[in-house]
Amino acid sequence: MSANGEISLDGRPTIIVEHLDPELEDWQALEYKCISEECTNSAPQWHFLLSGLPSASDVGKQLSLPATSLTEQSVETLYQGDRRSKVCLLDPKAEKDLSPEDGESFDVFLFGGILGDDPPRDRTGELRKMGFAGRRLGTEQMTTDTAARVTRIVVADRQHLNDISYVDRPDIALPASSGEGEASSESVSMPFRYVKGKDGKAVMPKGMLDLLASDADKDIMDLL
Ligand code: SAM
């Protein structure tokens, strides 16, 4: 980001997650790191920006993300006037689904940095009212990292939403937490849609299963 607040995109497509919660939960930290790593490792690379942070420097330390990926400014301030038409909000309530052609109209894909809830409380509405064009990723609620992953598959790999393989509302077998021995018989139901990985399982951020296992005694809806 330059001194006057302009984002330097180097012509790269960009994922922006506007952080909408007062704090940064462990779950969100894993999701944000995962989005950032996938943006860096994709070919061509995508730029990743986490906006609307309570205090960018603290969160930066917590996430070990470069300063160029963090800002306390809201996307509403960053994208004004004509620049706003280049931003696509991924919105579960949008009328149109995202298509590969949208990669030609939009440079920036915007997501709500919100933990999922079931039923959804439509907090994405906080971004919708800023007036960005919206696109849906089908009818199922995705985690933020899944929504970003699916967007890159549609826009960069030019795959249609319906051609992507998903795992819906999986029951995830948890690893044994430390001190419990090898196996755990516990599982947790995740009320979201995920991309299906090559192993047939839901693709999740690194560390998410361990976090789920360590929090297994809590109600899942208190964590998401
Ligand atoms: N329950 C949330 C709400 O109140 O809006 C949805 C949060 S979802 C975990 C986080 C973000 O992922 C959303 O703000 C949206 O940008 C994106 N997202 C998730 N599922 C989506 C879908 N089916 N279509 C479009 N965007 C989606």
TrEMBL record:
A Pfam family annotated for this UniProt entry: SFM1-like
UniProt xrefs under InterPro entries: SFM1-like
GO MF term list: protein-arginine omega-N monomethyltransferase activity
PANTHER family: PROTEIN ARGININE N-METHYLTRANSFERASE SFM1 (PTHR35517)
Name of this chain's protein: Uncharacterized protein
Source species: Saxophila tyrrhenica
